[in-house]
Amino acid sequence: MSKFRRKVAPVIDKLKELIYPLFLLITVLLILFAIPKITPFLEKAFIVPRFVWELVLNKEVELKKNDNAINILLLGIAGGNHEGAMLTDTIIFAHLNPQTNNVVLVSIPRDLWIPILQSKINAAYEFGQQKKPGGGLSLAKATVADILGQDIQYAFRVDFSGFIRAVDQLGGIDIDVERSFDDYNYPIPGEENNLCGKSQEETKIAIATISAASTARLFEVFPCRVERLHFDKGQTHMDGQTGLKYVRSRQSEGAEGTDFARSKRQQKLLVALKDKVFSAGVLLNPVKLISLYQTLNKSIDTDIKTWEFDDFIKLARKMEGAKIKTVVIDQGDEEKNRAGILVNPPASQYGAWVLVPRSGDFTEIQEHVRCEITTDNCPLK
User: Fold this and answer.
1) 302-338 per-position pLDDT tens digit
2) First-to-last CA distance in the chain?
3) Which of 4, 134, 272, 344 is the most buried (most CB within 10 A)?
4) Cβ–Cβ under 8 Å, residues 247 and 90
5) What CATH topology corresponds to 70-180+233-374?
């Protein structure tokens, strides 16, 4: 090293000691103040969701409300390329009241007949999407609002593939299975048209046998198309795939083989997912939050604006210990001597197996939902 370099080396080292902290400070300031101003570009580049920075900066956004409460429509679709992929298997109305710290979840059966659509309610989202991109949420919201007599501020649709990934990312969920049940006819994706080694003639006979409503069941005739599900009563840890099967099963034997039982299972899963998110500290951990956002982003359709996400996170924190009431619009329960609001008319009347209000219109449903939202005692006569 030259004499000059030896003389200036200590000075350079001293400058480094001063510059490095200054560089670090500038970097922090850049992250906190400059990045939020260029987040539109970053969002397009899929680098970071803007709502994370708004959360860090504590930006205030006033969420849309109705009488100090927020109503959200939650929809679940199977997704994929098969027939009926855009039909909503899950339809849940969520009423959140931050002032009373109460949440009311109302499940609506997918087979409810909607006169104005001349179809079941589970087709509303699909019909809307066919008319124009983004129209699915609008039509689904309008339809459910008309049924329940409640304004709906936001809607959220997720396909089940995203749900599976999210649950697995959280390490699974714990659900208290109400009763043991078996479902021998759970469909295997992609195997819907598998002939299971049968000839064309054998296939025709098999289909005719099933259509004749004999004792033959699908798993007996086309075993390669379905799998058997079994759940034991009690606390059960489920990964994403198992949780999906638990909530989608609809052909089990006994009391769990109805859409109403499935609606209750869907509500159980939502509560379990909420509990896991809080227990895992996701909402308080920006890294986990970004990761979960990226996992669900491609599987979600919502009319919640990006700049409103942070307020939803704050709302979730505030309502962490909220009292949750679950309500199912159904035909009642004879075993429990509980009346229902819906009835099942002859299939010939509507050309399909459907459910309709026993009163002839949605008035009784609307009154019952209003009661469930405002009080704790809403018996049906």
Assistant:
1) 888 877 877 877 787 777 778 889 888 888 766 666 6
2) 97
3) 272
4) yes
5) Aminopeptidase (3.40.630)
